[in-house]
Amino acid sequence: MSSHELKSGPLEYRTEQGQMNILGFWIFLGAEIVLFATLFATYAVLFGRTADAPLPGELFEPGIVLIMTFMLLTSSFTCGIAIHEMRRGSVKGLTTWLIITLLLGLGFLGFEIYEFIHYAHEGATLQSSAFWSSFFVLAGTHGLHVTLGIGWAILLLLQLAKRGLTPVTSRKVFIISLYWHFLDVVWIFIFTSVYLIGMVV
Amino acid sequence: MQLDEFFVTGEPLIYAGMVSIALVTAATIFILTYFKKWGWLWREWLTTVDHKKIGIMYLLSALAMLFRGGVDALMMRTQLAFPDMNFLNSQHYNEIFTTHGTVMIIFMAMPFLIGLMNVIVPLQIGARDVAFPYLNALSFWSFLFGAMLFNISFVIGGSPDAGWTSYTPLAGAAMSPGPGQNFYLLGLQLSGIGTLATGVNFMVTIIKMRAPGMKMFRMPIFTWSTLVTSFIIVFAFPILTVALALMTIDRIFGSQFFTLTGEGLPMMWANLFWMWGHPEVYIVILPAFGIFSEIIATFARKQLFGYKAMVWSMILIAGLSFLVWVHHFFTMGAGAFVNSVFSISTMLIAVPTGVKIFNWLATLYKSKIQFTVANLWALAFIPSFVIGGVTGVMLGMAAADYQFHNSYFLVAHFHYVLIAGTVFACFAGLVYWYPKMFGHKLNEKIGKLSFWFFLIGFHVCFFPQYFVGLDGMPRRVFTIIPEWMPLNVISTVGAFGMGIGFVIFVYNIYYSFRYSEREQTGDSWDGRTLEWATPTPVPFYNFATVPHIEDHDAFLDMKKKGKTTFEEDKLEPIHMPSNTGHPFIMMGIMFIASFGLVFEWLWMAIAGLIGVLIMMGIRSFDYDDGFHVEVDEIKRTERSARGL
C-alpha cells in the first residue's frame, strides 16, 4: 500500500501498485493461456468429427484468413510502436498509433464476422457437428477477446485525452498492450493449427 | 412458464425449506430495520475492501454452506439406514447427493480455506492488505452470488441431479432438460470467476508484499501453502471455466461437444472435468496441510521439523496433481498402457505426502505437546488422514480399481481425506485464529466436547463404508438391500454424531461470544508467526510499523529481541484503499444475468451482461486513490489497542 514513487525507469513501473498490477496481469495471462490451451485441446480431439456438415477443407479460404492474419500481426506491431511513443512521453504519438491498432483490430473482426456468416450459409454452424462447435467456440472466443480489447482500449483513449500520461494511465495502456500482443500470439496458433491444417486435411 | 413450473412443488420437505427461507429472510429484514442496521451493514460489510472483514464473511458463508451440505448428508444417511426406506424418493435422492457434493467442495471447503487465507496471509507476511483489495471484494461477492444461485435451485426451478461430476450425456440437454443442470453450470461459473481472481490476488500479494527481510524460505508455512494453492488455482480453474462454458453452450445453444449426436464426445467431459477436478482436490488439501503445520509447530513449541522438505513436497504435490486425472475413470477403457502411467503417477503422490506426515510426527517427537482444541484437531488429522491416503493408493492401482470403482469403498476413501484433511483443518484453523478475528477464544471445554463427538462420529460413519463397499454396495443408490443394513445403520449413527458435534461447535460460538474472557494481548497462544504480533482486534491497517524480518518464525525472533510492530519514532502516514459498493453491485447484476441464462431467458441474460460491462466501464474511470491514515490517528489507535 505504499505510495512512494520512483524517479526513474518506465512510468508504469514507478509505483509499487503499478508493478503489482502488471505482475498480476501477467499471471492472468497465464490463466488465459490455460483457457485457450483447453479450447485448442478440445478442437484437436474433435477434429474430423464433422458428421453430415461440410469438411473444413471445403470451406476455409486462404485469401481471407491471410488478410486477417496480416491485419492482426500488423496491429501488434503498431501497438508496439504506441508503447514506444508512450515511453518517449508523447501522448499524441501514443493515441495515434493506438487508434491505428484498433482500426486494424476492427478490420480483423469485420472479416471474421463475414467468415462466420459465410460458413453458416454453407451449412457449417455451431449446431451442425462436434467439429464445427469446437471451431466456432475456439475462433469465437478469440474474436470475443478482440472485441472486448477494442472496447477497453476506447475507454483508455478517453482517459488519456482527459488525464495525459500519468503512472496510472501509462500502466493501463501498458497492460492492454500485453493483452493485445497475447491475442496476436493466440491467433498465430489458430492460423496454423486450425486454418493451415484444416485446409490440407 | 407457469408459476408451478417456476417453483418446485409437491415435496413436503421442500415446502418446509421454503417456509424456513421466508422466515429467516423476514426475521433478518425485521432485525436490520428494527435496530436501524442497514447503514451499518452497507458501510461496514457490503462495501468493505478490508481483507479481514472479507475473510470473516467468507467464513460465515462457508459455515452456512457446511450446515446446508450437512443437512443433505443427514437426509441421505437417513434414507440409507434401512432397506426400503421411503424418506426420499429416487429423484429427490439424486438431487441431494448432487447438491451435497457440489456445496461441500465448491461452496464450503474452498471458501472456508480462502476465508482463512484472507484473514491470515496478509498478517503473516507483514502486509497491510492484499495486492488488489477491490478485486478481493469482487471475488467474495462472485462466490456468494454464485452460491446463492446454486442454492435457490431447490425451491426455484429444481435442483441439478446428475452428480457433482455432472457426467455427460446424463447431464446434457437431452437427458436432463430444464433449469436444474443450468443452475449447476452457472452457479459454478459465477463463483469460479472469484476463485480465479483470488488465485491471482494472492500470488501477487505473496510475491510482492512481504515485509522487508522475509525471504521466500522465511515465509510461514501457511503462506507457502497459499502460494502453491494459488498456482494450482490459476492453472486449473480456466479448464473448469471452459468445460462449464462448453456444456452451457451445448445445453442452451445446441452445440455438440458432449452430445451423442453430431459426433460429440461425452467422455471428453470426464477428461476436462477431472483435469480441473483433480488439482481442485489439492486446492482444498494443501492449505489444510499449511494450517496443521502452523498449529502443530505452535503447540509442540518447536520449530516445524523439515521446513524446506515441507515446502518442496507441497510444490511436488502441486505439480503431480495435474498428471493423475485419468485415475478417476480407469474403467473407461483407455487401455493398459494409459492406465499404468496414471496409476504410477497417482501412487507417486503418496511420496511427498508421506514426507509431510513424518515431518509432522518429527515435530511432535520429544516435544511438550499442548492439547488445546486446535491441536486436537491437528493430532486427530494425522492417523485419520493416513487411513484415507493408504486406501487412496489402493484405489490408484488400476487393476484393483476395477473392483473398487463406484463402490462405497471409494466414498469412504474420499470422505476420509476430505473430512479428516480439509474439514478438520477448517475447524482447527477457525479455533486457532478465532481470537485474532473476534477478540476472544472459543471455550476449550465445549470445543473438546464438539471435537470428540465429531471425531468419533466421523470414524463410526465412514469406517464401515469401506467394508460395505467391499460387500458390493455401489455409490449413488437411493435404497439398500438387507445384507448391507447393519453397516449402514452404524454409518448413519456416526453421521448424526458428526451432526451433534457441529451443533455443539456452533453453540460454542454463541457461548464464547457471551462468556469468554476478552483477549488482552494480540498473542493468544504464544505464537511464532507475524499475525500474533498485531494487537487484537487488529487495526484496519494491520501494522503501525512493518518489522524487519531476520529469521523464520519471525514473531518468536521479535519477542526474543523485544521488538514490536509499533515503533513510535518510525511512524509514517499509511496509505489505504477506500471502501466501494461496486463489487457488490457488479456481482449482483452478474447474478441476474446468470439467473436469466439458467431459465434460458436470453433477454435477461443479455441485459445483465450489458449491465456488467457498464459497471466495468465505471470502474475503469474510477481514479479513487484511497486515503492516508495520519500518524496521530495511528498513535491513538495503537496506544488504546495495546493498553499503553
From TrEMBL, chain A:
InterPro entries: Cyt_c/ubiquinol_Oxase_su3, Cyt_c_oxidase-like_su3, Cyt_c_oxidase_su3-like_sf, Cyt_c_oxidase_su3_a-hlx, QoxC, Ubiquinol_oxase_su3_dom. It is a multi-pass membrane protein. CDD domains: Ubiquinol_oxidase_III. It catalyses: 2 a quinol + O2 = 2 a quinone + 2 H2O. It is found in: Cell membrane. It is an enzyme of class 1 (oxidoreductase). Keywords: Cell membrane, Membrane, Oxidoreductase, Transmembrane, Transmembrane helix. The chain crosses the membrane at residues 21-44, 64-83, 95-114, 134-158, 178-198. Residues 23-199 form the Heme-copper oxidase subunit III family profile domain. The keyword Membrane applies. PROSITE patterns: COX3. It comes from the Bacteria. The keyword Cell membrane applies. Its main location: membrane. Its EC number is 1.10.3.-. Belongs to the cytochrome c oxidase subunit 3 family. Catalyzes quinol oxidation with the concomitant reduction of oxygen to water. This is Quinol oxidase subunit 3. It comes from Halobacillus amylolyticus. The lineage of its organism: Bacteria, Bacillati, Bacillota, Bacilli, Bacillales.
From TrEMBL, chain B:
Pfam families: COX1. Gene3D superfamilies: 1.10.287.70, Cytochrome c oxidase-like, subunit I domain. It catalyses: 2 a quinol + O2 = 2 a quinone + 2 H2O. It is an enzyme of class 1 (oxidoreductase). It is found in: Cell membrane. PROSITE patterns: COX1. Its cofactor is ferriheme a; Cu cation. It is a multi-pass membrane protein. Keywords: Cell membrane, Copper, Electron transport, Heme, Hydrogen ion transport, Ion transport, Iron, Membrane, Metal-binding, Oxidoreductase, Respiratory chain, Transmembrane, Transmembrane helix, Transport. Pathway: Energy metabolism; oxidative phosphorylation. Heme A3. Binds a copper B center. Its EC number is 1.10.3.-. The chain crosses the membrane at residues 12-35, 56-76, 96-121, 133-156, 183-207, 227-249, 281-299, 311-330, 336-355, 376-400, 412-434, 446-467, 487-510, 585-618. Residues 34-550 form the Cytochrome oxidase subunit I profile domain. InterPro entries: Cyt_c_oxase-like_su1_dom, Cyt_c_oxase-like_su1_sf, Cyt_C_Oxase_1, QoxB. The keyword Membrane applies. NCBIfam families: QoxB. Catalyzes quinol oxidation with the concomitant reduction of oxygen to water. PANTHER family: CYTOCHROME BO(3) UBIQUINOL OXIDASE SUBUNIT 1, CYTOCHROME C OXIDASE SUBUNIT 1. This is Quinol oxidase subunit 1.
